[in-house]
TrEMBL record, chains A, B:
Its EC number is 1.3.1.12. It comes from Tropicimonas sediminicola. This is prephenate dehydrogenase. It catalyses: prephenate + NAD(+) = 3-(4-hydroxyphenyl)pyruvate + CO2 + NADH. Pathway: Amino-acid biosynthesis; L-tyrosine biosynthesis; (4-hydroxyphenyl)pyruvate from prephenate (NAD(+) route): step 1/1.
Length: 310, 310
């Protein structure tokens, strides 16, 4: 794999940025790696671990002479960062981001970027429930989709270069419109997160079941919700506040549907329930066939694989 | 490990029964294994694979001379099976089950059992999204809880024997009251399942996002819901119909809580969201500390473990 950018600046050094650094370094995609973070502790860790070649105090310093600048801060902080770095960007450089919503990021960032800078938003669909500069690993993007979301007139060469960068880290790269991105992600990621947060919150609130019982007996179902609900609070707060309309729409649909099932249970309508649960099972099969999950029982959590015979 | 029961009859040969057979055989806990299932295909598979030593056509035949009878049929079928086997049970034998709700099973089964038979309900908190006689494996119960739910006067010796049987299969055995069991399981398992089913159903319904998009981009969050929502439809239909009151209560709470978060999003109340998401993260840490899940990122789904340095 050959070098794609001579100098890459990462603003924010959490799970995604540190994974990009590891993945890009492994594949030789980037020359010098510059990084910065708002927290002094994060900057100290990045320097101590050798995560970046250069750690700067400010974003303005970090972007100097960078060919690619990647904004890896929570969605709500993107606008302020763009305002800070705007005057210091190298003409002809590319600015990208990894935010989970795109329309709001475009509106916050674009006005601050000078002419001659290529702004190409992106979103890697990968993550874990961990965060921070030590949570990243080179394999995070492998066999996962990264959506590149060009907006307005985008220079084809700058776009092709960013695509090469992401493909080099192991991602399947696809292009998508900002509005459609925000809707697809609402369904596949944001709403499930909000619902998992709610379920875990309800369990915690229910005084007649102790916390220790919830924790001990979580194996069947609840455990998977808690993983989702353990994701970074700041990131998710910003996602919901910045994709408000789509959130409202799908929550409305969800509550409506939940009430339909609730009514079926109250009326004892077993046929409706059985038909419903059979349909959702088919969707699962589609995901396994698409290679986006394992069919190993229980995610292969240390059980035997498949059946032992006899 | 020494033999606990000379002859064990399994009524129903799905994931749980076949796992009990493998686990019990591996540990030498059971002598002769008799099994039956309503479906002729399941019986043929059980005979062909040597899953059981004897496969019978009917439950009445299967329980003859059995020291332990385990009802492994959906909760809604328990009453009819109990009625069928009642007259054929060996005096002094133990009848148990593996149903996910306990009060409804006790009410359905108990009236059909003769004097001198020990009825001791149980519920192993273990499972995968797979089902059928070939889905079982010996390790399913290891390091998982099995709740034994004695009701009324229970013979201490018969109880101790059943505890020994489950512990021999690797389970942590605990005792619990039927009503409390049904409430705890509602929170930790039943409600999460219903909610996952609903979420997957809503996604499927939403016409502006294609099914293939939902499937392709499912990695972040939605994927975990589909696993839960792929569980056996008949089993889950019966669970909800037989634990109706607790289901109604928790769904009410859930909808209320969801509306609170919805309102916070609409009003842009970032502090409330951040506080909420921080609290749920702490619950996750408790589950990992209790040894009921792995802290490996993303369940250790084929990513690198932890961070690769430098």
């Amino acid at each position: 794999m050959s070098r794609v950018y001579d100098r890459v600046a990462y603003i924010g050094l959490g799970l995604i940025a540190s994974s990009m650094i590891h993945a890009g370094r492994r594949a030789g995609l980037q020359g010098e790696i510059v990084g910065t973070a708002r927290s002094a502790e994060t900057r100290a860790i990045a320097a101590e671990d050798g995560l970046c070649d250069v750690v700067t105090e400010t974003a303005a310093e970090a972007v100097k002479d960078a060919d690619l600048v990647v904004l890896c801060v929570p969605v709500g902080a993107m606008g302020a960062v763009a305002e800070e770095i705007g005057p210091h960007l190298k003409p002809g450089c590319t600015v990208s981001d990894v935010g989970s919503v795109k329309r709001a990021v475009i509106e916050a960032v674009k006005p601050h970027l000078p002419e001659g800078v290529h702004f190409i938003p992106a979103h890697p669909l990968a993550g874990t429930e961990h965060s921070g500069p030590r949570s990243g690993f080179a394999e995070l993007f492998e066999n996962r989709y990264t959506l590149i979301v060009p907006e307005g007139d985008t220079d084809p060469q700058a776009l092709a270069r960013l695509e090469r960068f992401w493909a080099g880290m192991g991602a399947h790269v696809e292009l998508m419109e900002p509005e459609h991105h925000d809707l697809v992600l609402m369904v596949t990621s944001h709403a499930p997160h909000l619902i998992a947060y709610t379920m875990v919150g309800v369990a915690d609130d229910l005084r007649r079941v102790t916390d220790s019982e919830v924790i001990k007996y979580s194996a069947a179902g609840f455990r998977d919700f808690t993983r989702i609900a353990a994701s970074d609070p700041t990131m998710w707060r910003d996602v919901f506040l910045n994709n408000r309309e789509a959130t409202m729409e799908i929550l409305g649909r969800f509550i409506e549907e939940l009430m339909r099932l609730q009514r079926a249970i109250r009326k004892g309508d077993g046929d409706l329930l059985h038909e419903y649960f059979t349909r959702t099972r088919a969707i699962r099969r589609g995901i396994i066939q698409a290679g986006q999950d394992t069919s190993a029982p229980d995610f292969g959590r240390g059980h035997g694989q498949g059946q032992s015979k006899g």
